């Protein structure tokens, strides 16, 4: 047995804004500079990725989408979004380490007969 968790960022009303998938999508956009390339790399539909990014832009801001066709558009992430991704990763690692501690305690308890 082990502890597990899912981590997401939510708005003031408790609605999820960015979860693990959104973080992966934003990181892929940061790498590729494109929603369509990021979606392709993650095996997501462009429509799904675009709608997710629009939701993030509406709630958080910091996603600059340039219109254009092939070789003309692109997407940039602001320093705020880049920092938010770093904070998310830090929180993910911190919670993981804490839960590993408690998982070890559960495993030790299971070893007691």
Automatic annotation (TrEMBL):
UniProt feature coiled coil, ranges: 81-112
GO function term, MF aspect, one: DNA binding
Keyword Coiled coil: yes
Keywords: Coiled coil, DNA-binding
Residue ranges constituting the HTH lysR-type domain according to the UniProt record: 24-61
Pfam families: HTH_1
PANTHER family cross-referenced by the UniProt entry: DNA-BINDING TRANSCRIPTIONAL DUAL REGULATOR MODE (PTHR30432:SF1), TRANSCRIPTIONAL REGULATOR MODE (PTHR30432)
Protein name (record): DNA-binding protein
The organism's taxonomic lineage, starting at the top: Archaea, Thermoproteota, Thermoprotei, Sulfolobales, Sulfolobaceae
């Amino acid at each position: 047995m082990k502890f597990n968790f899912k981590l997401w960022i939510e708005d003031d009303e408790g609605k999820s804004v960015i979860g693990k998938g959104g973080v992966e999508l934003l990181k892929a956009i940061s790498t590729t500079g494109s929603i369509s390339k990021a979606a392709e790399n993650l095996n997501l539909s462009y429509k799904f990725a675009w709608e997710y990014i629009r939701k993030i832009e509406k709630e958080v801001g910091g996603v600059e989408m340039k219109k254009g066709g092939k070789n003309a558009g692109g997407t940039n992430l602001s320093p705020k979004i880049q920092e938010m991704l770093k904070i998310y990763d830090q929180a993910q690692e911190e919670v993981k380490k804490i839960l590993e501690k408690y998982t070890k305690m559960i495993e030790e308890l299971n070893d007691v007969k």
